[in-house]
Amino acid sequence: MTRRWVAMWMAAILAGCGREEQRAQPAQQVAQTPAPADERPVMVAFGDSLTAGHGAGPGLSYADFLQKELDRKGYRYRVVNQGISGDTTSGGVTRMDAAVSLRPAVVILELGANDGLRGLPVVTTRANLAEMIEAFQRAGAKVLLCGMTLPPNYGPDYIRSFERVFGDLSREKRTALVPFFLEGVATQRELMQSDGLHPTAAGNARVAATVMKYLEPLLK
C-alpha cells in the first residue's frame, strides 16, 4: 500500500522589492499554531504489495484512492496504509500488534496471496488469518476480509482449497468479505502492470471502488 509535497516565503521577498527607500524592518517572530490532531477513527489497510501499491507510484495505492472516496462520501475515517510488499500471513501475524495499537475502528485485511504463490500449506494460511481476525476483533475493530485466487497453473485442487479459506473464515468469524480483491482488474491487461500481478494506478482506483462496495455497509 507512500506520499507528496513547496514554497511560500518568496512572496514576502518580492513584496520588499521596489521599495528601496524603506528601511528593512527587523523580522518578527510569529507564533506557530500547531496543526490540530487528526481525531478521525482509524481504518487500517493491512496487507501485502497489493495494499502497499507496489509499482504504482506515491499516492496511488488502493488505500489512497479509498481515502479520497471516503472523503467524497462524507465518511470521517483516516486510512492508514500498513501494506508491506512480499508479506505472507505469517508476517502479518508478527506485526499485527502495531496495527492493534492504532485502535482501528475498521481493518481491511488483504493477505494470503503470497502464501498461495509460494505454495504454502492452506491450513497454515487459514490459521494465520484466523489469528489476525480474532486479534483485530478483540481490539474492537470491524474486519473486512479480502478474498484471493491463484493462477491456473497451481492446479484446481489447491486453488479451490485456497479460495475456500476466505469464505469459510468470513462466515465463521462473522466478518464482511470482498469475494475477490482484484475483481474487474486482474483480467484487464490495461489495469495491470507488466508483471501481471500488481494493478496500475487506474487498477488501484478500481480496486478501491470494489472495496468501498463491501466496506460501506460496515460504516452505516
Q: How would you concisely characterize the structure shown here?
A:
The protein has helices at residues 10-16, 49-52, 62-73, 89-100, 113-117, 122-138, 156-173, 201-219, and strands at residues 42-47, 78-83, 106-110, 142-146, 176-178. With 220 residues, it is α/β, with parallel strands linked by helices. The chain has a single domain, classed as SGNH hydrolase (Rossmann fold, 3-Layer(aba) Sandwich), CATH 3.40.50.
SSE order, one letter for each helix or strand: HEHHEHEHHEHEH
What is the CATH topology? Rossmann fold
Which structural category fits the helices and strands?
alpha/beta
Uncertain residue ranges: 1-27
Fourth CATH level, the homologous superfamily:
SGNH hydrolase
Q: Biggest sheet: strands, sense, closure?
A: 5 strands, parallel
What does this structure look like?
By secondary structure, this protein is an alpha/beta fold. The protein has one domain: SGNH hydrolase (Rossmann fold, 3-Layer(aba) Sandwich), CATH 3.40.50. Helices cover 43% and strands 11% of the residues. The protein is built from 8 helices and 5 strands, in the order αβααβαβααβαβα. The protein has helices at 10-16, 49-52, 62-73, 89-100, 113-117, 122-138, 156-173, 201-219, and strands at 42-47, 78-83, 106-110, 142-146, 176-178. The chain has a 5-stranded parallel β-sheet with strand order 2-1-3-4-5, with helices on both faces. Strand 4 (142-146), helix 7 and strand 5 form a beta-alpha-beta unit. Helix 3 (62-73) packs across helix 8 (201-219), helix 4 (89-100) packs parallel to helix 6 and helix 6 packs parallel to helix 7 (156-173). The radius of gyration is 22 Å and the shape is globular. It starts with 9 loop residues before the first helix and ends with a helix. The model is unreliable at 1-27 (pLDDT under 50).
